[in-house]
């Protein structure tokens, strides 16, 4: 595939709390190529949402981006001023949030909330903005869009709300859409509809999508590449088909073992033992070492670097280092 | 965000135990200082006969409108100066603490017992009693408290019993509403169902099972109400229809000083500072108590 | 829809007012203190016949229940009887004369409280525990812990006596009273283009207005602050930012509108207290309004006047709540359907 739309390099976003510094994002790097969908996968609390907010420049106190680069359109977004970032947000990068009920302002009508976005980015105003909003809603598959313009969020169903939110996010023709768990708050049938909608508008509008999710089913169906996150870091990255077929990092392997597969009733589901580390007191070595069945001394002492082990296949694990691991071949699941 | 939630849970589980509650309260420096100030006022009132340099009503004809010690003309004989009748302000302020605190406590206890009692019954049984009570409460809420208190007091003349009734007249409604709402929720709680299943009597369930659980918010409310009552009492006394004039009270003292504000500002001002300090301390203590008892309501 | 809503609320007002009038009527009549004796107190010796005649004149010789029935029936038509203390004038006319003064002062205090409280609450919420927040929180605590009459006197000493900046009594400089149209002096002054009268009326309201507004401003500030803090943590605020809206719009439009919803009730409640407060403040500042009228009427055992004033206060309390509910519905579309 072609050039990168978005490049995140060594991003560190920390939160100072009374318990100490929470390193929510601690050296995240990945690339998103034009026209592709990249999934950021991980359990809740792994830092994937904070990564999204960091890209958008929306990290609020007590959070702070400590260092790193967010390259978008050849510029580092982290160096932009607030007013420059405002033009990027909602303009060149759209964002969809998890829960459409809490994300749409309950006190404003659908019309107000879409038109506002069009107006602020100078896309359209007045009557034209209204007409465009209706077109957008129709394009999102909302029936009777004209009548729905006056509706308030609580008057719409969950799926409708999510469609309205996507309409707002793509209203100003962004190049990149960040979708943070876009279907988690919806029931299963709606999930598929919304994911299909996202796939459709991606094709039509030539979007690139950063899809944040914990759902491996969605990853396998709707994304081209994936970056697996654990405890504030990307531990493995690569094309989805390959990554799911042959996971390299023990965490990814463990994650896949937790997912039931159709037609594979014979494989027992085994949860990963232990729990996510305390982000204020991270282990000195590999973040996953305390839970890793394959960890040896080095894993506990030294944080592994991200390495490209094959073409477009990255992993952060000592097993794939230049030194030999005490184990033989990595086990394939 | 998940961190904040777990922090809250941690606080809640700490507050769930009485020693934990006390520890949280003691950890709140502001609340501790406020508590000490309230106790100091209480001690001042109780020990006024021993501490006060003069009898509160003793008039010093030769020392009228003496300034407090830091002002020109002031001295150590009357530390806070004297009023228009030559009475020692410090002594009167010390004695004034008695009636303020006494009335505050009596009125708050009375309204707490009446309001919480009615609220528990209305919340637990519902039905016609609840319906009637909600009408009564609506009426009282539409009632300008002060003018009603004024009317009673004007009709009966300043006396303490009428004053307590006037102050309590509407005050119980707040307790009623909190108790009713909490009992309504507690009625369906597991521990109540369990007690009922074990054959506990209704009075037993209300007093031994539900009351201890709904008590913390009521205690917080009682503390904050105390601040309101002290101000209301002072206001009525200021208008000359609260505490009988022979008993030294802060509101009366401010009123006494009104005629002299141009020449002797301290007579009206200093008793007001006493009110401000006590009410401020009560409020701060109440808020500390609320934070300790109910961490969800933390700022 | 609005017509139905308001009508329903106004009908609900009737039992409340009946309850209020009942309580007031019977407390006033059953407590000791004979208004006729009060009235004749200074007149020296009067015959028993004269007393009976006066009783008849004011209808005090009928049974209490009949008096109450007559009172309610007449009050419903706006007739509150004759005042005992204002040379037997009709209560309604005495009240009409004083009502605008109180209305004007209360409105002034109301606006002043909100103008301080809402921006202060918003600014404080943007940086909780910051310098401004701490200052505002301390200020608010002082505001709710201070008795209004004392604050009034302190303001009077500092700004009226020691510094002579502002008048400390009355409504207006009597030399510049504007021709009466609405009875609100500031408005009348503007209508007649009289700048001097406008300033004079405004200056007379500053100190009593401040003393009245302080506790309300404190409570409203605290409410705005805490609900803003809650609202600012909501997803829709973050989404508004993600749309590229400037922070001004995010806070002032998206967050504030939601934060004002729970604030409306506190504002209504506090405005009710503002009304009670004006009895004390008007007395402190010798401000010729309804509050002072009530305090004086109680002193003179002028039952009809007291009853009328209490009812006016009760009606305004209830109307305030109706207004708050309506405003609630305006601000929050979720309430409208319910």
List keywords for this structure.
heterotrimer; A: 333 residues; alpha/beta; Rossmann fold; eight-stranded mixed beta sheet; four-stranded antiparallel beta sheet; 12 strands; 24% strand; globular; C: 338 residues; mainly alpha; MetI-like fold; 77% helix; 0% strand
CATH architecture descriptor name of chain B: Orthogonal Bundle
Q: What share of the residues of chain B lie within helices?
A: over 70%
The profile of the biggest β sheet of chain A is:
8 strands, mixed
What is the second-level CATH architecture of the domain at 1-82 and 207-333 in chain A? Answer: 3-Layer(aba) Sandwich
Outline of chain B: elongated
Q: Major beta sheet of chain B, specifics? A: none
- Count of DSSP-assigned helices of chain A: 12
SSE blueprint:
The complex is a heterotrimer of chains A (333), B (299) and C (338).
Chain A: E1 4-17, E2 20-33, E3 37-41, H1 48-56, E4 63-72, E5 75-76, H2 82-88, E6 93-96, H3 100-103, H4 110-120, H5 126-139, H6 145-148, H7 158-170, E7 176-180, H8 188-205, E8 208-213, H9 216-222, E9 225-230, E10 233-239, H10 240-245, H11 250-257, H12 297-301, E11 307-310, E12 313-315
Parallel strand pairs in A: 3-8, 3-9, 6-7, 7-8
Antiparallel strand pairs in A: 1-2, 1-4, 4-5, 9-10, 10-12, 11-12
Helix pairs in contact in A: 4-5, 5-7, 7-8
Chain B: H1 2-15, H2 18-27, H3 29-46, H4 48-51, H5 89-125, H6 127-141, H7 145-156, H8 160-186, H9 190-197, H10 202-238, H11 250-258, H12 265-293
Helix pairs in contact in B: 2-12, 3-5, 3-12, 5-6, 5-8, 5-10, 5-12, 7-8, 8-10, 9-10, 10-11, 10-12, 11-12
Chain C: H1 2-30, H2 35-40, H3 48-58, H4 64-76, H5 91-126, H6 131-145, H7 148-161, H8 185-191, H9 195-232, H10 235-242, H11 247-284, H12 290-299, H13 303-331, H14 333-337
Would you write up a description of this structure?
The complex is a heterotrimer of chains A (333), B (299) and C (338). Chain A is of the alpha/beta class and 333 residues long. Chain A has a domain at 1-82 and 207-333: P-loop containing nucleotide triphosphate hydrolases (Rossmann fold, 3-Layer(aba) Sandwich), CATH 3.40.50.300. Helix content of chain A is 32%, strand content 24%. In chain A, strand 9 and strand 10 (233-239) form a beta hairpin. In chain A, helix 4 packs across helix 5 (126-139). The two termini of chain A are 28 Å apart. Chain B is mainly alpha-helical. Chain B contains 12 helices and no strands. Chain B starts with a helix and ends in a 6-residue tail after the last helix. Chain C has a domain at 100-298: MetI-like (MetI-like fold). Helix content of chain C is 77%, strand content 0%. The relative contact order of chain C is 0.14. Classes of the chains: A alpha/beta (333), B mainly alpha (299), C mainly alpha (338). At the B-C interface, helix 6, helix 7, helix 10, helix 11 and helix 12 of B face helix 1, helix 6, helix 7, helix 11 and helix 12 of C.
């Amino acid at each position: 595939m072609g050039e990168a739309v978005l490049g995140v390099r060594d991003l560190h976003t920390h939160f100072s709390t009374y318990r100490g510094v929470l390193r929510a994002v601690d050296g995240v790097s990945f690339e998103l190529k034009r026209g592709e969908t990249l999934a950021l996968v991980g359990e809740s609390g792994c830092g994937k949402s904070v990564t999204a907010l960091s890209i958008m420049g929306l990290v609020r106190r007590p959070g702070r981006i400590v260092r790193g680069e967010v390259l978008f359109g050849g510029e580092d977004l982290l160096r932009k001023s607030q007013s420059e970032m405002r033009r990027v947000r909602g303009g060149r990068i759209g964002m969809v949030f998890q829960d459409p009920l809490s994300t749409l302002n309950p006190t404003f009508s659908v019309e107000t909330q879409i038109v506002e976005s069009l107006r602020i980015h100078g896309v359209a105003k007045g009557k034209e903005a209204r007409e465009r909003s209706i077109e957008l809603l129709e394009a999102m598959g909302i029936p009777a869009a004209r009548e729905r313009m006056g509706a308030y969020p609580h008057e719409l169903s969950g799926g409708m709300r999510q469609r309205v939110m996507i309409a707002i996010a793509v209203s100003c023709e962004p190049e990149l859409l960040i979708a943070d768990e876009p279907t988690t708050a919806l029931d299963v049938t709606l999930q598929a509809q919304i994911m299909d909608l996202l796939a459709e508008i991606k094709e039509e509008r030539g979007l690139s999508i950063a899809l944040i999710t914990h759902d491996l089913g969605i990853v396998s169906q709707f994304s081209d590449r994936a970056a697996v996150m654990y405890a504030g870091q990307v531990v493995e990255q690569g094309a989805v088909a390959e990554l799911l077929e042959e996971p390299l990092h023990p965490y990814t392997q463990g994650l896949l073992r937790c997912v039931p597969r159709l037609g594979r009733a014979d494989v027992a589901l085994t949860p990963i033992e232990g729990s996510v580390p305390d982000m204020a007191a991270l282990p000195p070595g590999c973040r996953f070492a305390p839970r890793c069945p394959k960890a040896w001394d080095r894993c506990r002492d030294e944080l592994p670097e991200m390495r490209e082990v094959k073409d477009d296949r990255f992993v952060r694990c000592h097993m794939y280092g230049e030194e030999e691991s005490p184990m033989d071949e990595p086990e394939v699941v | 965000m998940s961190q904040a939630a777990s922090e809250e849970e941690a606080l809640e589980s700490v507050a769930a135990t009485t020693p934990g509650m006390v520890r949280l309260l003691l950890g709140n420096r502001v609340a501790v200082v406020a508590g000490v100030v309230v106790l100091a006022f209480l001690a001042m009132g109780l020990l006024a006969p021993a501490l006060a340099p003069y009898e509160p009503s003793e008039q010093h004809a030769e020392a009228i409108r003496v300034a407090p010690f830091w002002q020109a003309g002031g001295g150590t004989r009357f530390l806070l100066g004297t009023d228009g009748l030559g009475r020692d302000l410090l002594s009167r302020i010390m004695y004034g603490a008695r009636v303020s605190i006494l009335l505050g406590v009596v009125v708050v206890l009375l309204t707490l017992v009446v309001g919480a009692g009615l609220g528990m019954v209305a919340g637990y049984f519902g039905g016609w009693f609840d319906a009637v009570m909600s009408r009564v409460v609506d009426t009282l809420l539409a009632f300008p408290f002060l003018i009603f208190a004024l009317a009673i007091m004007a009709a009966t003349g300043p006396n303490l019993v009428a004053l307590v009734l006037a102050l309590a007249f509407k005050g119980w409604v707040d307790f009623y509403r909190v108790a009713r709402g909490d009992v309504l929720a507690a009625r369906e709680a597991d521990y109540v169902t369990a007690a009922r299943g074990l054959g506990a009597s209704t009075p037993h369930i209300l007093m031994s099972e539900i009351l201890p659980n709904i008590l913390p918010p009521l205690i917080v409310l009682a503390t904050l109400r105390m601040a309101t009552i002290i101000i209301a009492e002072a206001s009525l006394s200021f208008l000359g229809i609260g505490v009988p004039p022979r008993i030294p009270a802060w509101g009366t003292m401010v009123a006494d000083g009104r005629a002299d504000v141009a020449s002797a500002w301290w007579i009206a001002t200093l008793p007001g500072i006493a009110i401000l300090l006590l009410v401020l301390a009560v409020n701060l203590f109440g808020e500390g108590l609320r934070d300790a008892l109910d961490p969800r309501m933390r700022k | 829809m609005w017509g139905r809503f308001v009508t329903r609320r106004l009908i609900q007002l009737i039992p409340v007012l009946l309850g209020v009038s009942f309580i007031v009527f019977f407390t006033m009549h059953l407590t000791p203190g004979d208004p006729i004796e009060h009235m004749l107190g200074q007149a020296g010796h009067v015959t028993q016949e004269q007393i009976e005649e006066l009783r008849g004149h004011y209808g005090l010789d009928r049974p209490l229940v009949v008096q109450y029935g007559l009172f309610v029936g007449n009050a419903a038509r706006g007739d509150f009887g004759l005042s005992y203390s204002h040379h037997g004038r009709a209560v309604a006319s005495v009240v009409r004369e004083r009502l605008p003064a109180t209305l004007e002062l209360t409105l002034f205090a109301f606006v002043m409280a909100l103008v301080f409280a809402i921006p202060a609450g918003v600014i404080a919420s943007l940086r909780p525990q910051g310098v401004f927040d701490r200052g505002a929180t301390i200020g608010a605590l002082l505001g709710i812990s201070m008795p209004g009459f004392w604050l009034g006197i302190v303001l009077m000493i500092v700004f009226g006596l020691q510094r002579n900046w502002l008048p400390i009594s009355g409504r207006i400089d009597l030399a510049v009273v504007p021709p009466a149209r609405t009875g609100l002096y500031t408005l009348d002054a503007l209508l007649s283009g009289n700048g001097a009268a406008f300033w004079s009326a405004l200056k007379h309201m500053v100190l009593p207005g401040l003393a009245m507004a302080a506790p309300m401003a404190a409570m409203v500030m605290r409410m705005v602050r805490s609900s803003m803090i809650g609202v600012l943590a909501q997803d829709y605020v973050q989404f508004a930012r993600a749309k590229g809206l400037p922070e001004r719009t995010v806070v002032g439009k998206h967050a504030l509108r939601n934060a004002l919803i729970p604030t409306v009730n506190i504002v209504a409640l506090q405005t009710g207290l503002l009304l009670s407060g004006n009895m004390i403040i008007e007395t402190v500042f010798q401000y010729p309004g309804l509050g002072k009228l009530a305090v004086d009427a109680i002193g003179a055992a002028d039952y009809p006047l007291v009853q009328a004033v209490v009812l006016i206060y009760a009606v305004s309390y209830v109307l305030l709540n109706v207004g708050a509910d309506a405003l609630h519905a305006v601000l929050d579309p979720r309430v409208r359907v319910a």
